[in-house]
């Protein structure tokens, strides 16, 4: 599936619903993106751009057991497989943009507050925020480093993991998989 630039632009500011297990199911691992890209908004699939390495890294890490065709939009079976395993996906900011740097600092801070409320409500074992710069902006923690953060959010352990965007060129599927696997092990999603 492909989109023209004009088709993608028509999805600007569109929101993408969180992918979360049903309320009666446990939420073990919550991945947090910065905000939806235009391709994500068009397909209603988190991390959907064909150049994004999120799903290949999850597969390599053993978090997924079969590949996801993110560019065409995640199937209901793929979504259900994540939910059954207690894995969710959300974003700091809800509106779709072409690039994350189009978001204001206020949007990231507001998104951080909403994320903390979601975590307080759903109590995942682990929260994995993708992107150190976004994490620092959203939570005002200029000293934050990649990996597990010193302070949990209530009962939830917090990790900052690398952003899987193709624009984050110094990361590879292998390095992303290592970081995601660390968070998944802490959440009990993989051994």
UniProtKB/TrEMBL annotation:
UniProt keyword Transmembrane present: no
Signal peptide annotation: none
Species in which this protein is naturally found: Nocardioides hwasunensis
Recorded superkingdom: Bacteria
Protein name, per record: Mismatch-specific DNA-glycosylase
PANTHER family, A to Z: G/T AND G/U MISMATCH-SPECIFIC DNA GLYCOSYLASE, G_T MISMATCH-SPECIFIC THYMINE DNA GLYCOSYLASE
Assigned keywords, A-Z: DNA damage, DNA repair, Hydrolase
Pfam families listed in its UniProt record: UDG
UniProt xrefs under InterPro entries: MUG/TDG, Uracil-DNA_glycosylase-like, Uracil-DNA_glycosylase-like_sf
TM helices/strands, residue ranges: none
Ranges where the Uracil-DNA glycosylase-like domain occurs: 27-173
SUPFAM superfamilies referenced in this protein's UniProt entry, alphabetically: Uracil-DNA glycosylase-like
